[in-house]
Fold this sequence. Notes:
alpha/beta; Rossmann fold; 2 domains; 7-stranded parallel β-sheet; 29% helix
Amino acid sequence: xxxxxxxxxxxxxxxxxxxxxxxxxxxxxxxxxxxxxxxxxxxxxxxxxxxxxxxxxxxxxxxxxxxxxxxxxxxxxxxxxxxxxxxxxxxxxxxxxxxxxxxxxxxxxxxxxxxxxxxxxxxxxxxxxxxxxxxxxxxxxxxxxxxxxxxxxxxxxxxxxxxxxxxxxxxxxxxxxxxxxxxxxxxxxxxxxxxxxxxxxxxxxxxxxxxxxxxxxxxxxxxxxxxxxxxxx
Length: 233
C-alpha cells in the first residue's frame, strides 16, 4: 500500500484535488481509502463515500493541532486501510499549524495552495510547503499569467526542491501528474516517521494557564521585543 498526505490552508481545493485523484485511481483499478482530519467540522469523508463507495474515516483533532493529531492516528489508519485491502491511502489534513509538517518519510507529501490567495502566501506557510514533495497550485484560471509566474517564483524561493503542479481542481485539469506521482511512491514498509523536526512549543498556555503577560508564564515565553522566528526546515 502507498500513502499520500495532502495539506494546505482552508478553501484551497484540497478535497477537489483528492476527489479527482480518487476517480482516476479507481478507474485504473486501484483500491482507495480516505482519511480526513479537521478541528471541529468536516463532511468530506461522507461526500467521497457517497460519490465513490470507498472506505472513509474522519478524525477531529479537538484540543490537538491537526498535524500532531495525524502523527497520533496515522498508524491506526494505515492498519485500517490495509484491512480494507486498499493499495492507496489518501489523507487530507487541515494543516492549520504553520510551524509543523504533516508529511512522513515513505509517503507522498502534497501541499495545495490557491493562486488567488496573494503573492506572499508561499512565504507564510512554513514547513507545510518547504517539506512537501509537490506544491499543487489551484484556481490558476482566476489570475493572470504574470501573477501565476510570480506565485511560482515565490514557491521556488521558499522550497526550490518542491515540484510545482498547476491544476484546475474544479474541472480536474492537471490531475494526471499527481496520480502518477502518488503511484510512483514507495510502498509502506515498517514504521513510518514524521518528516522533519517539529518545533519545541510546549508552554504553560498549552497546559491551561490563562494569565495575560509573559511574566506570568515559564517555559517557552515571548515578549513583544523578542521575535525569535521559526521558519522550519
